[in-house]
């Protein structure tokens, strides 16, 4: 009886450790397109993509899926981050942000998105390191 329980305990421990130590990175990838005229968000999981498509169909003109900000340079007199306006389109399994004005060469752009962001993982809940609010995925891109 004890031997059976011990074997069962080892199997459960191995399964839990295998599931909790996954090396997969499921975060969406944010990058410039090949010609740097738009920003593409790829690798969106299916559930998040479905939510984005439903929200986009409901109100595509007022939906703020991503925000793109121009980061000020060290020599800029105004140290405010300026928002870049543009349109978002869904193409297949990706989101494409096309700015109203072209991106400026040599500038840094901060892209923030809540697409595919999870509140907390099981590991965060066990270790009590879960945040109280959602943190956006942030990516700095240099044109």
What is the topological layout?
Layout (H helix, E strand, L loop, with lengths): L1 H19 L8 E4 L6 E4 L3 H13 L7 E6 L10 E2 L2 E6 L2 E6 L8 E6 L8 H6 L9 E6 L1
Antiparallel strand pairs: 1-2, 2-6, 3-4, 3-7, 5-6, 7-8
Relevant terms:
single chain, 143 residues, alpha+beta, Immunoglobulin-like, four-stranded antiparallel sheet, 3 helices, 8 strands
Written overview of the protein:
The chain is built from 3 helices and 8 strands; from the N terminus they run H-E-E-H-E-E-E-E-E-H-E. It is of the alpha+beta class and 143 residues long. It has one domain: Immunoglobulin-like. Strand 5 (86-91) and strand 6 form a beta hairpin. It is elongated and about 75 Å long. The termini are far apart.
What is the CATH third-level topology name?
Immunoglobulin-like
Q: What's the mean pLDDT score?
A: 80
Domain module tally: 1
Query: In DSSP terms, counting alpha (H) and pi (I) runs of 4 or more, how many helices?
Result: 3
How many extended strands? 8
**Element-by-element helix/strand order:** HEEHEEEEEHE
Main sheet overview: 4 strands, antiparallel
Task: Explain briefly what this protein structure is.
The chain has 143 residues and is an alpha+beta fold. The chain contains three helices and eight strands.
